[in-house]
Structure formats: structure tokens, C-alpha cells
Design goal:
113 residues, mainly beta, N-terminal domain of TfIIb, SH3 type barrels, 2 domains, three-stranded antiparallel β-sheet, 1 helix, 13 strands, 5% helix, 35% strand, elongated, YjdM_C, YjdM_N, YjdM, Zinc ribbon domain-containing protein YjdM
Length: 113
């Protein structure tokens, strides 16, 4: 076990210090020594709407495009306001309720209200 932090790129523990940087001996990735806290905090997924605004749990968003609901003949119209969204992992990154129906949507079709 090394006393230095593992590589953020390949997760190997074979790292060494070089001036103000750490270097991974396996993949050659370099990162600043003072970025240890930033690396740990960067694991949080940042979900952004169609205009690049970050979204958070509980936000209200508006659809910017008509969306067909897969497996149904229902269409969610552009301009529909969706309240109290929840950020989830996966391809469809927003979990919400529209007309009492639980639906997962992609953030790229939303704008923050």
C-alpha cells in the first residue's frame, strides 16, 4: 500500500510525487497535490438542463419538446411544467410525476423554471 492517493484515472495505487503533482506509474496521469479534495467531490454527477443550468432534487422544470411516452399513445406536450424532480443515475436522469404517472425523462429536454 502506498502512502500516496490512488490515481483518479485508472484507480491504481502505484503513484509517486513529482514537484507539485502526483504521477501514476501505470497510466502516466498527473494531477495536482492540492486537488485531493476536488477529486473526491467530483464523483457527484452534475445534471444540466438543455441550456446548461445545473439541476438539483426538488427543482421545477419545463419541457421544451413534445415527448412520446414509450409503450403508450400518450404525448407529453411542450411547455408542461414538472415540479419536484429527482436526480437519478442512468440514461434517463430525471425521475418525476406527470398527471399522477411516474415517468423518467432526460434532462436534455428540460429547462429550469
Amino acid at each position: 500500500m502506498s502512502e500516496f492517493p490512488p490515481c483518479p484515472a485508472c484507480k491504481e495505487e502505484i503513484t509517486y510525487p513529482d514537484l507539485q503533482n502526483y504521477v501514476c506509474a501505470t497510466c502516466g496521469h498527473e494531477w495536482p497535490m492540492d486537488a485531493e479534495q476536488e477529486v473526491e467531490e467530483s464523483h457527484e454527477k452534475v445534471v444540466r438542463d438543455a441550456h446548461g443550468t445545473p439541476l438539483a432534487d426538488g427543482d421545477t422544470v419545463i419541457l421544451i419538446k413534445d415527448l412520446k411516452v414509450k409503450g403508450s399513445s400518450t404525448v407529453i406536450k411542450m411547455g408542461t411544467r414538472v415540479t419536484n424532480i429527482r436526480i437519478v443515475d442512468g440514461d434517463h436522469d430525471l425521475d418525476c410525476r406527470i398527471d399522477g404517472q411516474k415517468i423518467m425523462l432526460k434532462s436534455e429536454f428540460m429547462k429550469k423554471a
